[in-house]
Input
Amino acid sequence: MEFKDYYQTLGVARDATADEIKKAYRKLARKYHPDVSKEADAEAHMKEVNEANAVLSDPEKRAAYDQLGRGYRPGQEFRPPPDWDAGFEFSGRGASPGETADFSDFFAEVFGRMGGARGFAPGQRASFQARGDDHHAKVLLDIEDAFSGATRQISLRAPRTDAQGRVTLETRTLNVRIPQGVHAGQIIRLAGQGTPGFGGAPAGDLMLEVQFRPHSRFRANGRDLHLTLPVAPWEAALGAVVEVELPQGGVKVRIPEGTQSGRQMRVRGKGIPGTSPGDLLLDIQVVLPPAVTARARELYETMARELAFDPRPQRRE
Amino acid sequence: MRDEDILTGSPIEDSWLTLEQLAAACTVEPVWLRRHLDEGLIPRAESVAGVWCFASTSIVRARRMRQLERDFDAVPELAALVADLLEELDELRGRVGRVDPN
Output
């Protein structure tokens, strides 16, 4: 396990004041905010910044870290001496246990032992009861999975408390069935699959946020399914019934006579299924046959001559 | 894989939860959540007989607002305004993605 230099992560001096640490953290929190940052690996950077802030903004953790890290360089192999944290008392402020589950092994090794992820002061444990924390994760699905449901194997790192009240991070693997009808951004709840509770209290829940992989044909908006539908000029001009392939079989769609490229057609209830199923939204794209043979050229020339069609009509004075 | 080894999840929109469970899902404190619900800063939340049902977007919104308040000492109304803008950004990004998936 490598030593982490939290001062370097926040870009502050070792004797930085609490205000300087707060200012540096805010600057980086803005820079790496996952919703707006254009930096590469913004999310990973933000986790590091949050971890550093959770330690340096908490006077108790900072004091312990300073004592423990004396003489270590960033990246140096690190092993905390046994019982190094005796004499410290920690209130666990700075980050929620749910957040600390995302922190590094270094953090778990050092601060998981001392209350960062809900440890106990001596004598506190016997009467303490608390529901376990919820665990949050993302699950990546194909759009087709929303039509049929899917089973996914998910590995989670979650804090576990041993009989002595010490907290370590443990990896566990779950097989999870995602129901039919989910959409991107939706949260799927698995009751009781979060962190175990304390003192007989119930476990927390596992919350999975659904995300879809990019698809070559479909785009989803909630339960609505968008699809570009290429049609031939005669289908668009004369009207036609065309078959559209969907994840659970095809549907026949009537293209009205005179349909222009760019028009959107809505087929109600044929999007992602659910209690209120989404719609299928077809973006019509008229595709021209190439004029690569003499006959094809002749047909285009006939149209040009006989249709007297001006695609760019302008008002004339 | 045996069927009994598979856990089945349910959409959060189908789950009726206590305020404490909901607060845990949002990674916020129950008091914080109650105050923000009372002030109408978290829409798409329904309550019947002491239990609540949230839209997935409301869970994300609560988490975002709590982080903004904590990280930048934002007042709740400012955090709600930023959350509104981020939701608008999500919507516009989704629209761009549907036009140009690459």
Q: What stands out?
A: Chain B touches chain A at residues 1, 5-13, 15, 20-21, 24-25, 27, 56-57, 59-60, 64, 71-72, 86, 89-90, 94-95, 97-98, 101-102 (CB under 8 Å). Chain B is about 55% helix and 15% strand. Helices of chain B lie at 19-26, 30-38, 56-72, 76-99.
